[in-house]
Amino acid sequence: MADSSPRPTPPKPLPTPSPESAPFWLAARNHQLHIPFCNTCEKFWFPPSCLCPNCLSDDTGWREVSGLGRVHSHVVFHRAFHPAFTHDVPYVVAVIELDEGPRLVSNIVGFGPGEIRCGMRVKVTYDDVTAQVTLPKFAPHNA
Predict the structure, then answer these.
(1) Looking at CB atoms within 10 Å, which of 16, 75, 106, 124 has the fewest?
(2) How far, rounded to the nearest angstrom, does the alpha carbon of residue 121 sit from its chain's CA centroid?
(3) What is the value of pTM for the model shown?
């Protein structure tokens, strides 16, 4: 006889910071959005890397950015790609173009999936998933 009791939902996979991305995740844990910045050509970029992708300088650091941007593109997931996300569907994954230029992939919260449009203004918000992991997400911004 088959066991018909519901299976427990597995935990959601969490990011594992690399040496290049560790400052991003540390800042997020402190509810700040920091992005790599080149001191030579004065440009931001993302994802993090050891060298500036614009001028290949290694004179780089991290700067806090506004956390404001626009939805560049998005998709609504109606099926969970991982069993831990089953109870979240439908959910939105979007490419957010920050006002400072770089684009991040994140979730959109605070909108119904059918309300999201490319070009909509959003601002960063933070989801404290564990004591060690905070995920930057984006919510409506009406300014």
Answers:
(1) 16
(2) 15
(3) 0.87
Is residue 134 classed as helix, strand or coil in its secondary structure? strand
Look at residues 71, 109, 113, 106 and name the one whose alpha carbon lies nearest to residue 90: 113
Phi then psi dihedrals of residue 87, to 5 deg: -80, -5
Q: Which tokens hold the place of 68? A: 């404001």
Q: What are phi and psi of 61, to 5 degrees?
A: -160, -165
Q: What share of the chain is helix, strand, coil (3-state, %, to 5)?
A: 10, 35, 55
Annotate 57-120 with DSSP letters as a single string. -S-EEEEE---EEEEEEEEEESS-SSGGGGGG-SEEEEEEEETTS-EEEEEE-SS-GGG--TT-
Residue 66, amino acid: S
